[in-house]
Write a structure and sequence with these properties.
One of its GO terms (molecular function) is dioxygenase activity. InterPro entries: Bacilysin_H2HPP_isomerase (IPR052535), Cupin_2 (IPR013096), KdgF (IPR025499), RmlC-like_jellyroll (IPR014710), RmlC_Cupin_sf (IPR011051). Pfam families: Cupin_2. This protein is mainly β. It is globular. β2 and β3 form a beta hairpin. Strands 1, 2, 3, 4, 5, 6, 7 and 8 form an eight-stranded antiparallel beta sheet that branches. The chain starts with 9 loop residues before the first strand and ends in a 7-residue tail after the last strand. The chain has one domain: Jelly Rolls. The mean pLDDT is 95. The chain has no helices and eight strands.
Amino acid sequence: MQDRLRKFPVVSPDTGVTRQVLADAPDLMVVSFRFDEGAQGALHSHPHVQSTYVESGRFRFTLSGEDFEVGPGDSFVIPSGAEHGCVCLAPGQLVDCFTPRRDDFL
């Protein structure tokens, strides 16, 4: 049980953004991202399917060339290989799940 409750470090992948893995297994990973207002998640893509849940704050996302805004309680899925990114409009937290696990986050 102790290994399941291990604490992962908080890292800062970009200015105004922190990331912490909350849980992981080979087929699934849960990650918390905290954003300051104006911070960005640069456009990128990856082979993992990602679901995003907005815990707090307000964000403008770009997903496959389309822009949309999300706020607390919103969630959506990002398909494998889809280019996506975001701008934080009001400070907040996103909780992302990835399948399979993002080994580059470990």
